[in-house]
C-alpha cells in the first residue's frame, strides 16, 4: 500500500486508573520496537490532565515493517495486558 515511510499517530484510551501501568508497558514496548530494523521512530506521550490517555508516534520504513512489528511477541504481549479501554486503539497512518 505505501510507497514511502509510514507514520502512524495512535491514540490509546487506557482503562481508568491503569495509566501508570500503561506507561511502564509502553516504555518496554518502545525499547524493543526501536531495535527493529524497519522502525525509524517510536515514542509515546501521556496526557497531563488525563493520565489514562496516550498518543503514540510511530515511523516505519514501509507497510512490511509495520506488519512485522505488529506480529512481534512483545507487541502482542502489550495488547494481552488488557490495558486498553474498549480493547482497540485509534490509529491513523500518513505517508511521507
Automatic annotation (TrEMBL):
This is Antibiotic biosynthesis monooxygenase. Keywords: Monooxygenase, Oxidoreductase. The keyword Oxidoreductase applies. The lineage of its organism: Bacteria, Pseudomonadati, Pseudomonadota, Alphaproteobacteria, Hyphomicrobiales. It comes from Rhizobium terricola. Residues 6-96 form the ABM domain. GO terms for molecular function: monooxygenase activity. It comes from the Bacteria. Pfam families: ABM. Gene3D superfamilies: 3.30.70.100.
